[in-house]
Amino acid sequence: MARYSIHKLREWKAKGQRFAMITAYDYPFARLVEQAGVPIVLVGDSLGSVVLGYDSTVPVTMDDIVYHTRAVVRGTEKAIVVADLPFGSYQASPDDAMRNAVRLLQEAGATAVKLEGGSHVAPLVHRMVESGIPVMGHLGLTPQSVNQFGGHKVQGKTPAAAAKLLNDARSLEEAGAFAVVLETIPAPLAKMVTERISIPTIGIGAGPDCDGQVQVLHDMLGIYDDRRVLRHAKVYANIGGTVRDAVREYVAEVEGREFPTTEHSFEMDESTLNELSGV
Ligand code: KIV
Fold this sequence. Notes:
This protein is of the alpha/beta class.
């Protein structure tokens, strides 16, 4: 079965057809999100915070992304799989960046790569696209720069910052990016960017007028029910609580000798048992 082409996104934008992207980092969840109808799966470097236990995306490595992308590719048949270029994998040199992007397509099986930044990464985006690597951009609150921003703050709020973001989006479009994520920016600015560029915008904390939306799976599933959920995340389930309750019940049944029962056990012939009586 062929995967969706990245060109579908422009088709959807032209038709005004909204689309959902979601993160996944392993085989079972990749299967589930595709079965739920998600056409684009992002192996985001949010992996660091929601799966690997780091407090930011900064420590995530190329090997981490390659490992998790391979599992997501195995778990999907039709979805476009976008893999994040992690912090440090494209900043040091364009040649390094190219090698790492190629690795995500060749070794991990991703359809496309995503990287953060505007005009300053546009020449790199252009080189990747010219070499056959589909690139998704990422503007606004770019988590790899969280130390630079000094926290999770709404971006593009001043006239200068909003104009810069608009120009960055245009630079990515001109460089050949096939879509751009807009993270944590005012909704009216996201609407303006969406109307002024021809490539689809995918919002997270960017209001309802982007062409598509993206959410971090573990936030929307309520896996961490004891951690602060950012305002842009909508919690659709309480999987954390469900898992904890199920495991608690298992622990109680083992301790109470209620599990396993004969239903979960295997029998042995009486005659075989008798033969063992003298051993
Ligand atoms: O890493 C990630 O999950 C992302 C999304 C928040 C867009 O980049």
